[in-house]
Each structure stands twice: as structure tokens, then as C-alpha cells.
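With this grant's support, we have settled on a layout for protein records. An illustrative entry appears below exactly as we store it:
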Amino acid sequence: MILVTGGAGFIGTNLAAHLARTGRRVRIYDDLSRPGVDRNLAWLQRTFGDKIDARIADIRDRAKLRDAATGVEAVFHLAAQVAVTPSLADPEHDFDVNARGTLEVLEAVRVQKAPPPFVFVSTNEVYGAMADLPLHATATRWLPVDDVLAGRGIAETRPLEPRTPYACSKACADQYVLAYARSFGIPATVLRTSCVYGPHQVGSEDQGLVAQFLMRAIETPRGAASDGRPIAIHGDGKQTRDLLFVDDLVDAFVRAWSRVGALAGHAFNLGGGPANALGLTELLGLIESLCGRAPELRHGPWRSGDQKYYVSDATAFAEATGWSARVAPRAGIEALYGWLVDPRSGVAAPSGKAGAFDHGRRG
């Protein structure tokens, strides 16, 4: 049995499905508080039957969490408050879920006689706005002035400098995972992801933007007039991100689990990398070519902590595990588009060498 906290979420659903397809039993631990995740759980149960063991509970519920974690082969900790805007509205809740919740999961692992491997999903937001990074603007994106950095992306040697409550709570959790690995010998590692997208994702303007852009484009038929609901874009629209298709992330999870002894106590940046980086306007162009139109936009000012440029240097993880991003943006976006149009259809894994993009926030 493998425990996936937040297992009914977008990433958790894809991970659970992969594990179940390979014959594993998966324990989904989720409070179903995010809109749409109940449908993800129903799909998992309908598709994989008794390979899915659902526990509907909060990660801050110590007794239920420890019961769920007892005797499992591995723990993938994905449960979180996942966006910046809610953290600004209620920073105490954000801290309680992301920081204290992670500590509860770590303790549920630590108290076991043989602590199972532990993989935690962190975020590039822990690096903050990186305002000291010299950048220049092209017609469609921001890029580092330094050619070496532009060719590699941001490495784990970058100091943590969280600028929002969300980034702080994730950085706190991130560091606790590493501390528990070093202090207590828990086989735990951290993956700091950038923009992840794919089927089972229902995005918002603050998180899951690729899905949100696609949803808005699909809602407005080809050639139709605007419905008066533009998507807010903060900044100039040239924000640069690497896009990581969820199947590639799931592959990284499995590799991290299988090599956790060597990875324990270390954090790794994970994304499509410079070869897969695009600016927001380039993303919109790709969506327009697929849907026949792009969503209407409304521009607003930059927000505190926004990154003009973030692209992951995944070299360290690749060298340690043999991993690489394999799904190209067009193939990945077409897969997400197909799922959004008909979630019942099932989605075949796309193929092709990677590419990517996003907005100002992760996911």
C-alpha cells in the first residue's frame, strides 16, 4: 500500500492512477476541500476498484493520519494549500495546512519502526522574486542576461527567499522534510516543481493557469464575441516558465522513490528546463492555434513576489536518476485539451520531446 496525501488532487490523481495501473494499491488521503477533486476520486474508484483505498480526512487530524500511514511502502506528500491569493487572505490557515500539516505527516512517518520513503512536492516560489537576477526582455519573454544561466536555468544553489505567505509555508515544510531526513534518518527527498499541467487539472487564475486558459478558450466558441470575462494577467505577459507535463512528474516521483536512499536529505529543482521554456504570450499563441481563439485578457500591475523568469535547472535530479522531461508542450496541451473537452474519454500519454511556459505563478 502506498499513501498519497492530497491524492484526489490533480497531481495526486495522476500519480495514483499510474501506481494502480502497475498493480500497486494506493491509499488516497484527502479532505476533498478543493472544487472538482471529488470527481477525481470517483474516477479513480470507478477505474481501479479495490486498488484505491480512500480516507476522507484532514492531514492535521493526527489520529486518522497516523492510522493511514501505518505500514505503507511509501508516502508521497502532496496535500497542501496550493495558491498565493488564499495565503494572503488567510495566512494562518495557509501555515496550518502547509507547515503544520507537513510536520504531522513527517511525525506519522517518524514514529514507525521502519519509516517508509517520503517524497515531498515543494515549489519554485521558495526562491522568491529573484529581483537580483539581471534580465532582458525579448518580444515575448524575459530571459537572464547571463548566457550560461539562460542555458541551464535556476539551480538548487539559489538561496531561498520566500516573499508571500504561501511561499513561506512551503519553504518551511520543504526545510522540515530535509531536517527530518538529516536528523532522524527518514528516507525523504524534496522536489521543487515549476509549472505542472495535464489531465484532471481544473485551473484558476492563481494556480493551474494552463488549464484555466484552455478552459476559457474552450468556453468561448470559435469566432464568437467575448463573453466579458477576461482573465487577469499581472505584469507584461512576458513571464517565462518551463512547462512540465504531469506524466513526466509522475515518472520523477517513481524514480525518486526507487533511489530515495541516495537522494535523502536533498532538494531538487524539477521542470522542463530551458529547452522547454516559453513566455505567456507564446503559450496563448499555442492555445489559440489549438482552440481557434485565445481567452480575452485583462492586464494588471505586477504582484509582490512575482517572478519575471523562472526556469528549472533539473541537472542534479537528472544525473542522480536518469530522468528527463519527454512530453512536448503541444502534445501535452493537446492531451489536456482532450480531457477538458471530454473527461470521460481517458487520455493516452502523449509523446515527444519537451517544451514549455506559464504565467506569473506556478502551475
